[in-house]
Specification:
Elements lengths: L1 E8 L9 H10 L11 E4 L6 H11 L8 E8 L6 H16 L5 E6 L6 E7 L15 H16 L7 H34 L4 H10 L3 E3 L5 E3 L7 E2 L9 H6 L32 H14 L7 H24 L4 H29 L3 H21 L6 H16 L4 H54 L3 H7 L1
Antiparallel strand pairs: 1-3, 2-4, 3-5, 4-5, 6-7, 7-8
Helix pairs in contact: 3-4, 5-6, 9-13, 10-13, 11-12
Protein name: Endonuclease
GO molecular function, one term: endonuclease activity
InterPro entries: Endonuclease_MobA/VirD2 (IPR005094)
Length: 471
């Protein structure tokens, strides 16, 4: 019986956006787990070049941000399949599920008692540029039924989906009954924390809300009319007495503005075919093309130069229309204003760097946690080979807790600085572009004036032949 589990890899908030995708590909292609790459294969890409090809696809369609890829795991019953059989099943799943739309790498690991396969595929389709959209119900309606069908065709056992649905339904009902009260208490606790300047004020706030505060070893609260008290540490690690006390002896968590980051225009060259070609496909196409046409066009550079000139003309037209330019004095004023704005932008970036200094240790810890997050999740899914990574992840969480921060608070802080950096970067890019266009138009205006002056001077001077006749 093979069970398919679905994970996703989001954009790294610091550094290389596709860092988690790169780590995932490196992990599943580990030679020690795949018999030196024997059980590794690429789908619409070359495994060794998979990361660069996937990023090329994202760049081509202007979708380098947000979710980077997906990681599917097919777990087989112990001793039910061999490596070759598992590799065949995973390969058939990839071919049918992903088709020609996605670049993917899949591998089978045989370094544990139970053989399992890994599939990592790009979040962006290489054919149309649309992103993969995982929706609720896809696992039980599409993904696992496909796994079951392929396993059945090979004579392997399958997963009873009806039994899984029933267990999920029962578990969901239990969780909803238990969590309704917890959510209500948590909301009040968060409000009491927000309004308090110290731990003692926090307890007073809870009392003023009508809660009876109890507990010497473990803090608990009892709602008005409730029969039993509720321990706050049951709400999560962030709500133990130690964690609650630490909240008042730390730097404040910066709040997000809630405003959207301004969108950037992305210029994408769309080839004459609708189908996007990966780097490897481009090389193959070029070789075949040259076989039929040995002499390649040597004037391609002229076409590229013409396209660039057209882009510049479009930029200048939009600029002139937006600012209603009447003379070159306006262009000079805009250029000077842009220089002042660049200086202000630079000063704001330096100020942001100073603001980040007290949080550097926390953000560094968060970055290490994010690098180990995927392995820790896999361990929780039952993969014992990730035990050391899980321990490292837990140790890092402990260090973060000792600093007085929860994981969600660290992520909020990271997102806050990331948003501010992104806004300043986009603002600087816009200012530089406007400054460049204004200076280019100013140079053209001066060149035009110079040519007109030369032409007037030439028209004023009588020709030598004309002076001779007049004498």
């Amino acid at each position: 019986m093979a069970i398919t589990k679905c994970l996703h890899m989001k954009q790294a908030k610091m550094g290389y956006p596709a860092k988690h995708l790169a780590n995932g590909l490196r992990y599943i292609m580990n030679p020690e787990k795949t018999e030196d790459g024997r059980y590794v294969c690429g789908h619409n890409c070359i495994p060794e070049q998979a990361l660069s090809q996937m990023v090329d696809t994202k760049r081509h369609f202007g979708k380098l941000d947000k979710r980077q890829g997906y990681h599917f795991i097919l777990s087989f019953e112990e001793e039910e399949v061999s490596e070759e059989e598992a590799f065949q099943v995973v390969g058939e799943f990839v071919t049918e599920f992903l088709g020609k739309d996605f670049e993917a790498v899949y591998a089978v690991h045989n370094d544990t008692d139970h053989i399992h396969g890994h599939i990592i595929f790009n979040s962006v389709r290489c054919t149309t540029g649309y992103k993969y959209d995982y929706r609720n119900g896809d696992w039980e309606n599409i993904i696992q039924p496909l796994t079951n069908r392929i396993c059945k065709e090979h004579g392997f056992s399958t997963l009873d989906l009806e039994e899984v649905k029933e267990k999920r339904k029962q578990k969901g009902q239990e969780e909803n009954i238990l969590s309704e009260r917890d959510r209500r208490i948590k909301k009040d606790v968060d409000q009491a924390l927000q309004d308090a300047g110290s731990y003692e004020e926090f307890l007073e706030n809870l009392s003023s809300m009508g809660y009876e505060v109890r507990g010497k070893k473990r803090l608990s609260v009892r709602e008005p009319g409730a029969g039993r008290a509720r321990r706050l540490d049951r709400l999560g690690e962030d709500y133990t007495e130690e964690s609650l006390r630490q909240r008042f002896g730390r730097l404040p968590i910066p709040e997000m503005t809630g405003e959207e980051i301004p969108a950037e225009w992305t210029y994408v060259f769309i080839p004459y075919r609708e189908r996007h070609l990966t780097r490897y496909q481009k090389e193959r196409f070029l070789r075949r093309y040259r076989q039929g046409k040995p002499m390649a066009d040597s004037k391609t550079w002229k076409y590229r130069a013409a396209i660039q000139e057209l882009k510049k003309l479009q930029e200048e037209f939009d600029f002139l229309a937006a600012y209603r330019i009447q003379d070159k004095a306006q262009l000079k004023a805009i250029s000077d204003a842009a220089k002042e704005q660049l200086w202000e932008n630079s000063r704001a970036r330096k100020q942001l760097q100073k603001e980040m200094v007290p949080y550097e240790e926390m953000l560094l810890l968060l970055n290490k946690l994010q690098e180990k997050q995927m392995e820790a999740e896999l361990y929780q899914e039952g993969y014992q080979e990730f035990f050391q990574d899980h321990q490292t992840y837990q140790n890092l969480l402990g260090q973060l807790k000792e600093m007085g921060y929860s994981l969600s608070e660290a992520e909020q802080t990271d997102a806050y600085f990331f948003e501010k950096e992104e806004r300043l970067r986009i603002e600087r890019k816009k200012i530089l572009k406007e400054k460049r266009i204004a200076e280019r138009l100013h140079e053209k205006a001066e060149e035009k004036e110079k040519l007109e002056a030369q032409q007037k001077e030439k028209n004023r001077k009588p020709s030598a032949r004309g002076r001779g006749k007049g004498g």
